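Observation: inputs received (chain + adenosine monophosphate).
Thought: call the complex predictor directly.
Action: predict_structure
Action Input:
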Amino acid sequence: MGVALGIDLGTTNSVAAVATPTGVEFILGSRNERVHPSVVAFPTAGGVVVGSDAKKYRLTEPQHVIHSAKRFIGQNIRAPLVQLALTGVRYKVEEGPNQQPIVTVRDRRLTMPEISSHVLLHLKRCAERQLGTTVSEAVITVPANFTDGQRQATKEAGRLAGLDVLRLINEPTAAALAYGFGHQRDQTIAVFDFGGGTFDISLLRIQGDVYEVLASDGDFFLGGDDLDRALTDLLASECNRILRVDPRQHLPLMMKLMMGAEAIKCHLSENDAAEGEIDGLDLPNAKAAQLPFQISRRQFDDMIAGYVLRTMDVTRQALAAAQLAPGDIDEVLCVGGSTRIPLVRRRIAELFGREPNIGINPDEVVAQGAAIQAGSLTGKLDAGTGMGASHAIATASHSPLAHDISSSVPGAPPRGRSPTQAPTPPPRPHRPTQPQLARPVARPILLDVNPATLAIQTAGGYTEKLLDKNAPIPIQQARVFTTARDNQTRVEIDCCRGEARRYTENEPLGTLVLDRLPARPRGELKIEVSFRVDADGILHVQATDVASGTRQEAYLNVLGAPAPGGGT
Ligand code: AMP
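Observation:
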């Protein structure tokens, strides 16, 4: 068996690592960098360039440089937030089959999983060069609130890169694992993950080797890129005022301002003010110019206050879902580059009444946790994996607990395409409050939750919950459906994700299609549909004709998901 990598596939940057007998080893790029920009360039000169080397093309040919693919992977291009995010990219994205976003660059058309697969392939090659061995397996991290479609698309990216994706794990869970592994902690922690493109908050209970997610929440479209954009807007206005040029009409100029904005933002994390000039601005009249700037941290704080407030609102929501008070949290881990911003740290300290833990590296901790999980799944972890020196690891004896609940519902009078009766809500399955083994648990046990309510459309445009947000996964739930018309051989069930009562206020997931049903008078047929969310957070659906016991794999036609085979 080759080596299994742990990969943090980020919106802005990616990090890969591998567990070794002496600790976790990070995978380096050609300049010995641990952090690899998630950037793929298709330069005019030909070829595909990935990582740090790809970034330099942002200035010369920005339309050929694909970044932030994670914002679009597994998404429906028509979703309003996706449309908004598209205004922040300079490359061309079009609607492809199944409403998935397709990148058109030079003479190529690529799906988002194909773009991400270039990043993964780059990491795999760097790892193979560094380790001198084949890398064929990986644990890849995803934001806790990634949808089924986004998870499937991420797995697809791994497959396209020649990696067997052993497991998708949630980024905050990975961070908690890196923090807790080998320390036999007994704590309730918050993982506050504010990166380049997304914000995630997870609350976890760590007891020895058991990592139980109590609640998680997040915002896909909230990250450092938004803060850069706020600052870029200010610089663009200054450019207009001082140089009498509207950079919004000139792509390379705008890119230069965006890069300047990010540098100013990072400078302000360490300093009270930023003052200087953005030089080398190529104006449309062929003159080179400089744009002076002077921005105080206070000004910047005002500019981003609304975004930071949104992270706090989501955090409060997660605390409420876990029925925890801020004071119940023993430690707040900061993950993601945007947690370096002083205003963010200040707001965290105010909310939790304690300073966040800044002792961990916010850029690397997620990949570190993924590497531990990869090592655990391939049996490569041993007592020496130096995350916590005193940690004694016994041989594997206990696999993660499953939480399969099957609540079958007897049929009731038919009502269109809707389910016929509400099921008993699933009880929260029992989870051990202590690792229930007489000897040390061999492997870390990760108990995660379903990131969002999955529901179906009922008559009148309302929804009915199928699987609850924050329900422990893996989880299974069964429902009985029936036909609304005589001799109906096909039933369609619209599925969505979200908490709203009205179907249209939620995020549509796709339509579940049950066909080849035997022709019967209406209401006579009883079809039990079982919805299962596996440990990767991916939804599987199966339908059974209750009378005959005949089973068929039902499929959820997920909007925005790659076309079968991954191509366009
Ligand atoms: P990540 O997605 O975790 O790699 O985070 C990347 C984001 O963190 C980008 O938006 C960066 O601009 C931002 N970032 C990195 N370092 C800093 C810093 N020192 N201050 C503010 N933001 C930072």
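Thought: report the result.
Final Answer: Residues 297-321 form the longest helix (25 residues). Residues 383-441, 562-568 have pLDDT under 50 and may be disordered.
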